[in-house]
Amino acid sequence: MAVKSFKADMARRAILNWIKTGRFKPGDQMPSEPALAKELGMNHLTLRRALAELAKEGVIRKQRRVGNFISLAEDPQFAKSVGVLLPLWLRRIPSYNAADMVLHGVHQILDVRRYSVHALFYEEGRLWQDIGKTVIAKKMSGVLIEGSRRDDLRPLLNAGIQVVALAPDQVECATGVHWVDQDHVTPFREILERLIALGHRRIAVLFYQRMNWGAALRDTARFVLEESESAEATASIVELPNPVAEGDVYPVDLRTLEPLFSGENAPTAVVVPDEIATNAVFRFLQERHLRIPQDISLAAFQNYAPALNPLPLTSVDSMASRRMAVTVAATMLLDLLEGRPPAGKGITVESTVRWKTSIGPVADSHHHRLVAGHRNGT
């Protein structure tokens, strides 16, 4: 799908939804372009871009000097029902619309004329209680599921439903579910190796207490330090309580980080788990008069809101890898629904690092002693 304008894409999705909900049926003539543009609250040129994309996809057909008609392809009411099962916490992320990203990716792959896509939300650990029976009742042929920690997917598999897990845990992989994940380990390792190459020997690595791939990253940190040419390099693993929403704010508790900055052996680099922690740690360092990257380097191994970063941040390009993961997962589900063997049982999508100016060479030891003395009031 090549709609690049955000508003044009909104119009495209609105029209697709009208088709799915029966407002427009195959063969129907659509309202005039000026009437549609007024209803959607946009100018006619933006609407025309959306209609051109729908025509390219075969959803509508344009009849010159007459108007736009819904294609006479398969009637949406006979389309196969497909579910996108998402945890409720995805709707509470303030930094970006995580749920819409998944749904948008699925709609790019599944033809609206052949598949009716339903988004269902559940509290983690309550998948079956919240939406499991709905999935069965709607006779869904397949589901793409994210965030199913501590949930049993066997009832869906036993009902003959094709299941693809996005960002799975080890339990899901072991049950034979098809899955797609992002590569978190490789870019994390690259960040640590770059910091060591820049002379950093005391690196603080922050994790949330509940991260499904946190154990793999901890092992990676230990491995990188053991393999380092410098025997002096050490990493302080700091566990942070998982942020809990307070309205539209996700406060990060940094009390476990404070002891590391109490003396001369303070870290020269900090690696944080995501964009939420980035902002909290940035303020934490500012309060201690530490400049980035002159006095201390800062990087993140997950970053879904680069536009909200307080500085150009070295981090994993999480948005790009997530979009690709959703596309691959939706394609895998489509293959399963159409009886084709997917590319694999499990696929890990490559992630890359966006190198920015938040990391640099380690400051000289004299300057760090001065900074430490300033922090201690000496």
Note down, in words, how this protein is organized.
This protein is an alpha/beta fold. The chain has helices at residues 6-20, 33-40, 44-57, 98-109, 127-137, 154-158, 170-174, 185-197, 214-227, 275-287, 318-337, 365-375; strands spanning 60-63, 67-70, 80-87, 115-122, 142-146, 162-166, 178-182, 202-208, 234-240, 269-272, 297-300, 314-316, 346-349, 353-354. The strands form three sheets. A six-stranded parallel beta sheet has the order 4-3-5-6-7-13, with helices on both faces. A six-stranded mixed beta sheet has the order 9-8-10-11-12-14, with helices on both faces. It has a two-stranded antiparallel sheet with strand order 1-2. Helix 1 crosses helix 3 (44-57) and helix 2 (33-40) crosses helix 3 (44-57).
Features of this protein?
Rossmann fold, 14 strands, 6-stranded mixed beta sheet, Arc Repressor Mutant, subunit A, 37% helix, 378 residues, disordered C terminus, globular, 3 domains, alpha/beta, single chain, 6-stranded parallel beta sheet
Helix-strand blueprint:
Blueprint: H1 6-20, H2 33-40, H3 44-57, E1 60-63, E2 67-70, E3 80-87, H4 98-109, E4 115-122, H5 127-137, E5 142-146, H6 154-158, E6 162-166, H7 170-174, E7 178-182, H8 185-197, E8 202-208, H9 214-227, E9 234-240, E10 269-272, H10 275-287, E11 297-300, E12 314-316, H11 318-337, E13 346-349, E14 353-354, H12 365-375
Parallel strand pairs: 3-4, 3-5, 5-6, 6-7, 7-13, 8-9, 8-10, 10-11, 11-12
Antiparallel strand pairs: 1-2, 12-14
Helix pairs in contact: 1-3, 2-3, 4-11, 8-9
